[in-house]
Amino acid sequence: MYLDFNQDNKGLLSIFTAPFDKQLHLLKGLGCNKKYNIISFQTGCCNYCIFCFHKDDPKKGYNDSILASLKNSMHLNRKNNISHLLLAANEPLRYPGILDLLESANKYGFKTIETISSGEFFSNSSFTEKLVRYGLRNISIPVYGINKLHNQIVANHKSYNLLRSGVDNLRSHPGVKIYLHTLLLKQNINHVDKIISLCAKVTKVPLSILHLKYKAKLPYKSLIPSYKEIIRKFRNSNFNFVGFPLCVLKELSPEKFSKTVSCSKNYKTNLLCKIENDISDAIFLYTRVFSYHKLSKCFHCQIEQYCPGVFLNYVFHYGDSEIKPL
CA 126 to CA 95: how far, in whole Å? Predict the structure, then answer.
């Protein structure tokens, strides 16, 4: 996952680099109702996605001393006895010491390791087998379209075939849970049904549909559809939309809207209280890192306290007329 420390939720991001003991305390303070640790490290990406200009050298953030430090931090888990570990990086499987890191995590008690990955590295069956042996169990993979469309969006003509091969390899391991997600773009808004069909073939978990946090060089409106466009296309679809203002979510997915409101969890004070079973912990945490904002009109809404809010750059480009207090 790409985390922009200049624009995102700095309070939450500080947890990523905290010692494991402190992480558990901080996560609980934000309403986290699951027990896991997070390990964050720098890596490069595989692709040049049109919605993201971030790509580093694969060896950035890697040397023997950094790897040793990451491995040494694992021993704290002997007394914490936490079994779930989340990996936070751009493409964690591109990290040169990833197998060594996972082997240490497994040795010190982390039996369920989870991450977000392009899926391309899983096309190597022997590499995948080693990852699974060391505890990789939950994997979130982005799919932006079928075949050429996905390749065009990630600017890599081999990506889709590698991804599909990787998913097939993962499916051969019964203990692995696969989650697919997509970003809703102007380029793929008319192809989401095809991604959903693919998702239904490879996993029992519904496709997560995320709203893009803009960090690209392309003009905003060339990438991001308006809420009006999204509602026109997906009204009452009850698809698995994640990270949308509740007034918009109500139009898109009444079922998910009702579940969110009935849970009665204040978004700010229970930022990490996860009520959804249909998204991975990694994607849930990823969306919580974003800095959403409440507009002045939002405070006239009866359910404002349950709502994430809206991205300010969305309002800058599209205005606030689509945000309607309930």
Answer: 17
